[in-house]
Design goal:
- The complex is a heterodimer of chains A (about 180) and B (about 800).
- Chain A has about 180 residues and is an alpha+beta fold.
- Chain A folds into 2 domains: about 80 residues, Beta-grasp domain (Ubiquitin-like (UB roll), Roll), CATH 3.10.20; about 70 residues, DNA polymerase, domain 1 (Orthogonal Bundle), CATH 1.10.150.120.
- Chain A has 5 helices and 5 strands, in the order ββαβββαααα.
- A 5-stranded mixed sheet of chain A has the order 2-1-5-3-4, with helices on one face.
- In chain A, a hairpin with a 2-residue loop joins strand 3 and strand 4.
- The N and C termini of chain A lie far apart (about 50 Å).
- About 5% of the residues of chain A have low confidence.
- Chain B is of the alpha+beta class and about 800 residues long.
- Chain B folds into 3 domains: about 150 residues, Aldehyde Oxidoreductase, domain 4 (2-Layer Sandwich); about 190 residues, Aldehyde Oxidoreductase, domain 3 (Alpha-Beta Complex), CATH 3.90.1170; about 375 residues, Aldehyde Oxidoreductase, domain 4 (2-Layer Sandwich), CATH 3.30.365.
- In chain B, about 25% of the residues lie in helices and about 25% in strands.
- Chain B starts with about 25 loop residues before the first helix and ends in a 9-residue tail after the last strand.
- The chains are: A alpha+beta (about 180), B alpha+beta (about 800).
- At the A-B interface, helix 2, helix 3, helix 4 and helix 5 of A face helix 1, helix 4 and helix 17 of B.
Chain lengths: ~180, ~800
């Protein structure tokens, strides 16, 4: 959408660091963060499902914490760091969670997937060795209508194991 | 010709053929956030449309004042029914030969109905515009269920229809009424049950939407939209918008789940098209969740009242069902036109029952149009749910074990093909084996002991069984059509000079993984590695005609077309191989990926070499190229079978029930990609659990939708959803070219009864025969505490208790 054609409205200047890059923009105070990311920055991997903070398709990381970007205003992200699915890994690589979802068939239609992976990313940052129950609880703010969750849980556990192995190797290399 | 490396035949699994749990090719874009859903489509100069919806369920429109909306800067168009009527677009035909309002002109007939729309520079301004429209309504009494609709003094909902004097949408019947009546006279016991399958919404996470782009210079209309059936939509748009079909291009991009919700034609699509034509600019409409939940294709909402004629030894002699279906304000089901209540008459198809009769009546009510095939083959979910609940009740009435009662009545292997009492030809299966495998896997006998021990300590454990078959893959074309278009499907295959291929299909994935699995069918037939095959779908300019993906028909029909077109390619490649090998065609043998000379297996030509020859070295007189298409008209439906078992425990204090185990045995014939099949089954089981436990949409007496957002419409999360144990039996379809049967919906169809039967088993001592879904804690608590049935859609309850059992000679109806 064209976010600059609302001449009668007050606009605020914000600067948000998205996937490592700072972005400055004039936005209406009522503009949702999800719309800012999707329409303003063209980062369409953040999906909008429900408008009421239930489905979690719009989940992004705000300063490392999982938040739902459809019920947050862009102005509230001023001066903060946002990570979207596009920023999970460098262009040619995949994050272990992305690999895990593919390996364990953790997605079907793919609409909930970015939000699922980002919620899982926040979990693994806090708890690198979660149980199945931990994963189910951490993802309980994200709805999936296709998979029945069992393979999503397996995907996250797959990624957790790979990340632990990688961390052990890099720790070993540092010694 | 060159000898292939080694003499070992190709390993089909390794190259991604049938049976390979090939990782999905779709995933590489989805896991990167690079899918392209309709809301991701952005065109130069694109405007945004929002819809104003009715707050009332039934009201006459006195006036609509749009003047304030027009004055908002950035608003480009305010469209009302009056303006649409000037283009003959205030109403549109439905896929069920009814009419439906695009924008209301005379009355609103359900809460959430489209009244006006606003196009603006961005969606925020478009919403401002909607808020500025003033509509003056004269409220009318609302009708919210069939009982009210059929009452003598009911307000007439469809006063727009000439000759429509009541709220009856249709009447339909099937079966042998006289034979059934005679069988009931012979019965030792007649078992009865009345239940309501509550209204539910398929609710994919992605809502509906469209981007309509009418090019006034070329006259071409391109519509990007959330549709499971782009080719039917093209035909429908040609009819509705009176545009020439060759100048309409429907593109169905990535779809964030469909489940039947994205088959119908919705007013929002039509409005975006009309607005684009009027403005000469692309117009995007993206529905919000409330709009999706209150106005788009609902499912179920059927009252079923039936009885089984039983012999004392447990043999079922006949079945009789009366169904009343609530279709909302417009009859807009997308289903074969001959069958007004879908394939409800597939009920009891897995049992050997000589006589049956079904009578059905559809009701218009002041609710959103419903009756879509939500993850099922046209109302078979209601059919199988009633079947398995009725079977459960009958076994209990006879005092017979649930498994044993099914054992005595399921079709035996030697009975196939079997003509059912309602005319279906059930083609194959190993029903007994599936049941026994399920019973063994869940430890049925041990569980019964555990259940008794637990009961002695005050715990309530229960086990539920559901066995079912389902007719999947409509047509054949003799019986199945939509809008007069026969239900076949097509595939087109092009093999390029280097042996890489593009397959184009008329079906359309919404997450089922066609881009992965359809390539595997070609690999199976031709030996071209799946990685060398691109599958295209969803764009009507670029794919052959197909009826779309719903009712588990992709593999049974489009998958069969894919196998058949690959065989045509192979037939031509054989001629090319004979030419290359300098032998006659009769002396050429085929093994996966390669032809060779009979008796000299080292002399061969690979499929890739044949492809090169088709463009560079064809024999004299042969048409160049290696491409073809196939239209497949299935000789019959495919008939998968499944046995689902659940063990639950009810908290006696609260009525909350937990699922302890779920065992699924699915026989869907040959599995193309076992990983994908298992994903489909687990997804279906989750919807089954949801339906039985929490997921329903209801209405208050004023017709207000209760469940218009995800705070009120409960869907299970990872936390509640149980784990699943999956098992497999394989009876290949006798008529499908690769022996496959549909599977995507079986668990959603057959699963709910397993959970409900388990809860009822856990309170069997109370004599409760029925609790209508969803089995919310308060309903379970009420049933077990007061030892009474809990029926009807809360909070508006109709009728009363479910039927009780009567012996045949007592003859009482027990009607609620």
């Amino acid at each position: 959408m064209d976010l600059t054609t609302a001449p009668t409205r007050d606009e605020r200047r914000i600067t948000v660091t998205v996937n490592g890059e700072p972005h400055a923009a004039e936005v209406e105070p009522r503009l949702l963060l999800a719309h800012f990311l999707r329409a303003g920055l063209g980062l369409t991997g953040t999906h909008i499902g429900c408008d009421t903070t239930n489905c979690g398709a719009c989940t992004v990381l705000l300063d490392g914490r999982a938040v739902k970007s459809c019920t947050m205003f862009a102005v509230q992200a001023d001066g903060r760091r946002v990570t979207t699915v596009e920023g999970m890994a460098a262009a040619s690589e995949l994050h272990p969670l992305q690999e895990g979802f593919r390996e364990e068939h953790g997605l079907q239609c793919g609409f909930c997937t970015p939000g699922m992976m980002l919620s899982a990313m926040a979990l693994l940052a806090e708890n690198p060795d979660p149980t199945e129950e931990d994963v189910r609880w951490a993802l309980s703010g994200n709805l999936c209508r296709c998979t029945g969750y069992q393979n999503i849980v397996k995907s996250v556990l797959w990624a957790a194991e790979k990340m632990r192995r990688q961390n052990a190797m890099s720790a070993g290399g540092a010694q | 010709m060159t000898k292939p490396s080694g003499t070992k035949p190709l390993d089909e699994i390794r190259i991604g053929g049938i049976g390979a749990s090939r990782k999905r090719v779709e995933d590489s874009r989805f896991i990167r956030g690079r899918g392209s859903y309709v809301d991701d489509v952005s065109l130069p100069g694109m405007l945004h449309m929002e819809i104003l919806r009715s707050p009332l369920a039934h009201a006459r429109i006195r006036s609509i004042d749009t003047s304030k909306a027009w004055r908002i800067p950035g608003v480009r168009l305010v469209l009302t029914g009056e303006l649409a009527a000037q283009r003959n677009l205030a109403w549109m035909p439905t896929l069920s030969y009814d009419t439906q309002a695009v924008l209301a002109t005379d009355k609103v007939r359900f809460q959430g109905q489209e009244v006006a729309c606003v196009v603006a520079d961005n969606p925020y301004v478009a919403k401002d515009g909607c808020e500025a429209i003033v509509v003056d309504y004269e409220p009318l009494p609302a009708v919210v269920n069939p009982e009210q609709a059929f009452a003598a003094d009911a307000p007439l909902i469809r006063d727009d229809k000439e000759g429509q004097a009541d709220n009856v949408c249709y009447r339909w019947e099937v079966g042998d009424a006289d034979g059934t009546a005679r069988a009931f006279e012979q019965a030792d016991v007649v078992s009865r049950l009345r239940l309501h399958y509550p209204r539910s919404h398929p609710s994919p996470i992605e809502c509906c939407g469209s981007v309509a782009d009418f090019n006034s210079a070329t006259g071409k209309l391109t519509v990007y939209m959330t549709t499971q059936a782009p080719h039917i939509i093209r035909a429908a748009v040609a009819l509705v918008a009176e545009l020439p079909e060759h100048l309409i291009r429907i593109v169905s991009p990535d779809i964030g789940g469909g489940f039947g919700n994205k088959v119908p034609v919705y007013p929002g699509y039509v409005c975006s098209i009309l607005c684009s034509i009027l403005l000469g600019k692309p117009v995007k409409w993206i529905e919000d969740k409330s709009g999706n939940l209150i106005s788009t294709g609902f499912a179920r909402d059927m009252y079923l009242d039936g009885e089984l004629a039983l012999r004392a030894d447990g043999k079922i002699l006949a079945v009789r069902i009366r169904a009343e279906s609530d279709h909302g304000a417009f009859f807009s089901d997308a289903q074969p036109s001959k069958f007004k209540i879908g394939l409800l008459h597939s009920a009891f198809a897995c049992y050997d029952i000589p006589y049956g009769h079904i009578s059905a009546r559809g009701a218009y009510t002041n609710k959103a149009p419903g009756g879509v095939a939500y993850r099922c083959s046209f109302r078979v979910t209601e059919a199988m749910y009633f079947q398995e609940r009725m079977v459960h009740a009958a076994a209990a009435d006879l005092g017979m074990d649930q498994a044993e009662f099914r054992r005595r009545n399921l079709l035996r292997d030697e009975q196939f093909p079997h003509r059912t009492a309602f005319g279906f030809l059930v083609d194959s299966g190993q029903y007994g084996r599936c049941l026994e495998l399920g019973l063994e896997a869940i430890g049925y006998q041990d569980f019964r002991r555990e259940q008794r021990d637990a009961a002695a300590r005050g715990r309530r454990l229960g086990i539920g069984i559901s066995t079912m078959t389902e007719p999947l893959g409509a047509g054949n074309s003799r019986e199945y059509d939509i809008l007069g278009i026969k239900m076949f499907d097509a595939a087109e295959l092009r093999v390029h000079p280097t042996g890489k291929a593009i397959l184009k299909i008329g079906a359309k994935t919404q997450g089922q993984g066609h881009e992965t699995t359809f390539a595997q069918i070609v690999t199976h037939e031709l030996g071209i590695p799946a990685a060398d095959i691109l599958v295209e779908h969803g764009d009507t300019d670029n794919t052959p005609f197909g009826m779309g993906t719903y009712a588990s028909r992709s593999t049974p029909v489009a998958g069969a077309a894919t196998a058949m077109v690959a065989r045509k390619i192979r037939a031509k490649a054989r001629k090319l191989a004979a030419h290359l090998l300098e032998v006659s065609e009769e002396d050429v043998e085929w093994e996966l990926g390669r032809f060779y000379v009979r008796g000299a297996p080292s002399r061969g030509a690979s499929i890739q070499e044949c492809a090169a020859a088709a463009y560079g070295n064809m024999p004299d007189g042969m048409e160049p190229g290696l491409e073809n298409n196939a239209y497949y008209d299935p000789p019959n439906l495919t008939w998968p079978f499944a046995c689902y078992l659940a063990i639950v425990e009810i908290d006696p204090e609260t009525g909350v029930w937990d699922v302890l185990r779920v065992v699924a045995v699915d026989d869907c014939g040959v599995r193309i990609n076992p990983m994908v099949v298992e994903g489909q089954i687990m997804g279906g089981l989750t919807e089954a659990y949801a339906m039985s436990n929490m997921q329903f949409i209801t209405f208050d007496a004023g017709g207000n939708c209760v469940g218009s957002n995800y705070l009120d419409y409960l869907l299970p999360t990872a936390w509640e959803t149980p784990g699943f144990e999956l098992h497999e039996v394989c009876t290949p379809s006798p008529h499908h070219p690769i022996g496959a049967k549909g599977v995507g919906e079986c668990a959603a169809v057959g699963g709910p009864a397993a959970f409900v039967n388990a809860v009822l088993d856990a309170i069997a001592d109370t004599g409760v025969r029925n609790i209508d879904m969803p089995l919310l804690p308060d309903r379970v608590w009420e049933a077990m505490t007061y030892r009474r049935d809990v029926s009807g859609a809360p909070p508006v309850r109709t009728g009363g208790a479910a039927h009780t059992t009567d012996t045949a000679d007592a003859g009482g109806s027990g009607a609620g």
